[in-house]
Amino acid sequence: MVPLERDSLLAVLRPFEEATPLPRAAFLDPRILEIEDETIFSSSWIPVAHEADLARPGGWVRSPLRDENIVVVKTADLEVAAVRAVCTHRGTLLCDGPEGQLDSLEIVCPYHGWRYATDGALLAAPGARPGSLPPGLARLRTETRHGVIFVNLEKTAASLRESWDGGPPWLERLHGAPLCRVRRSDSEVAANWKIVVGNFQESHHFASVHPSLEGKTPWRDSASVVVSDAWLGGVMDLLPGFSTVSESGELQGRPVIAAVEDRGRIHDAHVFPLWLTSLQPDYLLTYRLAPLDVDRTLVVAEIHMHPSALARGIDLEDVFTFWDRTNAEDRAICELQQRGLSGRGERPVTYAASEDGLHAFEKLVAARYLQALDERRAT
Questions:
Q1: What pLDDT sits at residue 343?
Q2: Cis upstream peptide for 178 (omega within 30°)
Q3: 17 burial class (0-12, 13-18, 19+ CB within 10 angstroms)?
Q4: How confident is the model at residue 60 (pLDDT cuts 50, 70, 90)?
Q5: What is the CA angle 124-129-132, rounded to 5?
Q6: By three-state DSSP, how is residue 44 classified?
Q7: At CA 266, angle to CA 357 and CA 304, rounded to 5?
Q8: C-alpha distances in angstroms, 223 versus 107, 233, 235, 353, 354?
Q9: Helix (H) or strand (E) holding 199
Q10: CATH number of the domain bearing residue 33
Q11: Domain containing 77: what range?
């Protein structure tokens, strides 16, 4: 049984001036995460890894998708493949752990020695019945944008570009692409993934949560850009005297990557459902989200710059220090919201006037929940 009432979801879909937020159960009930697995994550492009984590052929990383046993592998042909790393013989897990390096560029079952190529093709099946043709590993669709590898579990889903409906335009006109990842930091946030996205979708909290961010990009100078169901954007103006968002607010020799028309502003975009991006004049900040449980979310923060920023040995701590602090502030406030909603009888009741971007996101989620209600009613 779906732990949501149809009327509460329809209330989210009302015009912004009349709408109410997602009900409390959406952030607390484990059954909701199962519904999201079925109606959102199973048919969406999900960010699961970065090319920089697959340095050599045979390198692999485990996808954070729940209960899917998917690994992303650098193949012998220097391509990227995503396969279900479960032996087709008896269902033994083939790649144990978060990452690794394959010996001899083969995936070998530790149980009976069945061997698979890095693209999932079956190479050897010791003991298989004569005349039988055992299958290889199921391969999933992958696409890469700005070094980030996306996986889609649905064979007939639209391509990544088609599903983004063109994608955030400012990401399509970057200078110096392909960018180089210069920083990765992982953290586990004790909050539902929708709380993490909701926090990203509004700037109203800057003044109370991020004073250093508010001092460079005031929330009152922000505006939402809602043009597509595939991605939701927002822009914020840099105050005069600042060239970028960092401790100093100065470029300090870092090459500019934003197009001329995009400088002087910060361009944020949430690519539904689990990728958050923020384009600064001199770097691209991205967050890969992975729901671990109804109240736990893995957040992989990555910073990307023009390749010459590393080649020239430019000091990047000006950027790193700023975002280490800001990300910690976001983590703390998201966890506080999760704890508040966990109290019996508590519930979100209204949107603030500036939260049209948050409303746009919750409308997408509510529509998927209604789809689940209708499908269950039909069966």
A1: 83
A2: yes
A3: exposed
A4: very high
A5: 75
A6: coil
A7: 110
A8: 49, 9, 5, 11, 8
A9: helix 193-200
A10: 3.90.380.10
A11: 48-156
